[in-house]
Design a protein that fits this description.
The complex is a heterodimer of chains A (300) and B (449). Chain A is mainly alpha-helical and 300 residues long. Chain A has helices at residues 2-10, 30-60, 68-86, 99-120, 127-143, 157-191, 198-201, 205-236, 244-266, 271-299. The chains are: A mainly alpha (300), B alpha/beta (449).
């Protein structure tokens, strides 16, 4: 995500319109805006509803409505997809070129990846941790009504690769985070001998640990690739400033590298690995937040 | 009138020494039943024999007498007059309720345990095989199974495990996910440890047994399907195991933090679940503070068991109300099978048909003596009913009498709910049915002539 900052550094005098949910200049016209606003609200409400239902299922164990949260979550993803298509980039525009879209796509990707993971592992209940992440990123994408777009002069294929890899990495780390968080909750309950309710409904420690490890193993190469392309792009576009976000990105990369090395070389498992993974994800979120804030500031 | 009796003893009334004297192995159940039914002259008989209860269900035309005979049948098998006090008995609706509660696991030692339903079903099948189940017991137990299913589905009575071994297994599953291919190390030869190891073995873990006495280790390993390992290899085995069950008689801690530190390092932080069933404890509680090491002692497991039990107790009240509902439904069916009301209803039904036809025919006939016609129709009804009535009265006393009554009620659409009220009142819907029946009968006779 090193690029974004540089992109904004190059961003100078693109005329900026007051936009509703994202900064796509082609998305104009009162009717389209109303529809977008409606879809945005519907998506957010569905995500929020899914969050509540998942949390209810986790804490109360509503046996009769076991499948309901998942259904609502899929509905939220459907609405989200419609929203994404509605505001999709036109042919001459680069996809994923502004912060709002990056956040929105990340939120969507996390949901999709979670659904896929639910097929692989029996972890539907983790929606209680994943759905709030989706909701948070989606709301953040809407908040940024004033995120500045990347200026056309700095757009390039390398930039697209960079952003794409990082978004996918973020999605993988989000799943690792959810699994890690569930692991910590589960381990705490086990140690405190609180074995009814939540403990019964969350997956086993082994499944959570394995899932977290696999997600990190998927995310790490993507993050690495993202960093390389980012640096490459940065050098080529002559942006030479080194900012907080880049530093945070390096920290996140180091943490994940450390988690993987310790897991593989020293057999690290369980609580420490979960804590490391969660920390790494929080740093990637900080990187994103840094860019978002910068974009918001630039966008005015 | 025929009614139910149950005589038996269970964990509530008799210690195991007494219960085992009455227990009948499953393969001998049928033969034993035939003997009991013949010896006690019961219409129907069914024998439930589990490790926690032996109960004889029977029906007889004189329930009080049948209860005596059932009691005598079990008492002679007890061979001990003192132990006879352990026998309890219920009659009529109480016997039915008892059957429903037993099948629903409300009367079990561990309320909600799932095995009892299967055992009752086996007893039922054995009795059917022996030919000692008729309409009454048949209907009673079929409904008992339905009740048990409702209780299982509609209440949380069977939720949460309550035995120490199964709790240990569940916990291991919550830590390791799939237990297939994991390794359990049984340390010591305590009885509870052995049963926990057995349960874990059944979930597919390998089992290694370590004991100070090598002979004991070997015999234990053999009986549980594990492998005996020399005591000197303890630290190595600890490094390889996933679950450790400690149940030695050692007066002091065997697994100390100092020792476990090396073990944890050599096992590269893989999770280790230690179940300390020994009293005094084998595992220093500080071991439980180590990373990826989880220690549960016997109190922890017991506490979990008690929590689960209290949940079950709450659900049991709900289950009792389901049982009451089902008993009510059974009684309604039962009442419908009584002979006297059935005869009254049957006569009334025939008389009604005759009267109706008479009313229809009279206006179309001139100069007929009304009294003659009435006498004729009455006489036809009586003649037609004579044979069925005789058969019904004779058959009602037979073992399958209820079936006969049931058949009559269905053939002539005599309602099940309340035969008494039915006999006293005439209601439109039934009237319609009767007419249909009469027309149908007339039609078919018309064709045949």
């Amino acid at each position: 995500m090193n690029c974004q900052r540089a992109a904004l550094a190059n961003y100078r005098a693109i005329p900026h319109h007051g936009r509703l949910f994202c900064g796509r200049t082609h998305a104009s016209g009162g009717h389209g805006q109303t529809m977008k606003a409606g879809l945005f609200i519907a998506t957010a409400v569905l995500y929020a509803l899914a969050c509540m239902l998942y949390l209810f299922l986790l804490t109360r164990g509503a046996e009769r409505a076991r499948r309901l949260p998942g259904t609502v979550f899929v509905a939220a993803l459907g609405a989200h997809l419609a929203f994404l298509l509605l505001e999709g980039p036109s042919a001459h525009e680069m996809p994923l070129a502004d912060m709002s879209q990056i956040l929105s796509i990340s939120s969507f990707g996390i949901g999709i990846a979670f659904l896929l993971a639910s097929y692989r592992f029996d972890v539907t209940i983790l929606g209680a941790f994943v759905a709030p992440l989706s909701l948070m990123l989606f709301l953040a994408s809407g908040l940024g009504s004033s995120y500045a777009p990347v200026s056309p002069p700095v757009q390039s294929a390398v930039l697209s690769l960079h952003i794409g890899a990082n978004v996918l990495g973020l999605v993988a780390f989000a799943l690792a985070f959810a699994a890690g968080l569930a692991y910590l909750v589960q381990e705490r309950l086990l140690r405190r001998r609180q074995l009814s309710g939540v403990f019964q409904r969350l997956p086993s420690l082994d499944v959570l640990d394995t899932m977290s490890l696999r997600a990190v193993l998927v995310g790490f190469p993507l993050l690495t690739f993202g960093m390389i392309t980012g640096t490459f792009w940065l050098l080529r576009s002559n942006g030479s400033h080194f900012f907080v976000s880049q530093a945070l990105g390096v920290v996140a990369w180091t943490i994940f590298a450390g988690v993987i090395v310790l897991r593989v070389a020293a057999g690290w498992q369980g609580r420490k690995a979960a804590l490391g993974t969660m920390m790494g994800f929080l740093f990637t979120l900080l990187v994103l937040a840094g860019y978002a804030m910068r974009a918001a500031a630039e966008g005015g | 009138m025929r009614d139910f009796v149950v005589v038996g003893l269970s964990h509530r009334t008799a210690p195991v020494e007494v219960r085992e004297r009455l227990a009948v192995p499953p393969d001998r159940l049928g033969e034993e039943l035939r003997q009991i039914a013949a010896g006690g002259r019961f219409d129907e008989a069914l024998l439930i024999s589990t490790c926690n209860r032996v109960e004889l269900y029977a029906t007889g035309s004189d329930p009080i007498d049948a209860a005596h005979r059932a009691r005598a049948a079990l008492a002679t098998r007890l061979l001990d007059s003192a132990a006879e006090d352990a026998l309890y008995q219920e009659r009529g609706v109480d016997a039915v309720r008892h059957a429903f509660r037993v099948a629903s696991s409300l009367d079990s030692l561990v309320v909600g345990e799932p095995q009892i339903l299967g055992q009752v079903k086996e007893a039922f099948d054995a009795a059917k095989g022996a030919g000692t189940v008729g309409t009454l017991l048949g209907r009673c137990f079929t409904q008992a199974f339905a009740t048990a299913k409702r209780v299982r589905n509609e209440t949380g009575i069977a939720e949460g495990t309550v035995s120490v071994s199964s709790i240990a297994c569940e916990l291991a599953k919550k830590i390791f996910g799939n237990l297939e291919g994991r390794r359990t190390l049984l340390l010591g030869a305590g009885e509870m440890g052995e049963s926990a190891a057995r349960s874990l073995r059944q979930t597919g873990t390998q089992l290694h047994v370590i004991n100070r006495s090598e002979d004991r280790a070997h015999s234990l390993a053999e009986s549980c399907g594990g492998r005996a390992v020399p005591y000197e290899r303890l630290t190595l085995e600890l490094a390889d195991a996933d679950v450790v069950i400690a149940s030695t008689a050692s007066p002091k801690f065997i697994l100390t933090p100092e020792m476990m530190k090396g073990v944890v390092r050599s096992r590269r932080h893989r999770p280790l679940f230690i179940i300390d069933i020994a009293v005094p404890r084998d595992v220093d509680p500080r071991v439980g503070n180590m990373d990826n090491v989880f220690v549960y002692d016997v109190d922890d497991l017991q506490q979990v068991a008690e929590e689960n039990l209290s949940v079950r107790a709450r659900e049991a009240t709900l289950a009792e109300s389901i049982v009451e509902e089902e008993v009510g439904a059974f009684l309604a069916w039962r009442r419908s099978l009584e002979l006297a009301p059935t005869i009254v209803a049957l006569r009334k039904r025939f008389a009604e048909v005759a009267e109706q036809e008479l009313q229809r025919a009279l206006p179309r006939l001139d100069g007929v003596d009304r009294a003659v016609l009435e006498a004729m129709s009455r006489s036809i009804v009586n003649k037609l009913l004579h044979q069925p009535m005789t058969q019904l009265k004779a058959g009602a006393g037979e073992p399958d009498g209820a079936l006969l009554i049931d058949a009559v009620r269905r053939l002539f659409a005599l309602s099940e709910e309340d035969p008494g009220a039915q006999a006293a009142s005439t209601d439109g819907a039934n009237e319609g049915k009767v007419t249909q029946l009469a027309t149908a009968a007339a039609g078919s006779s018309g064709e045949s002539t």
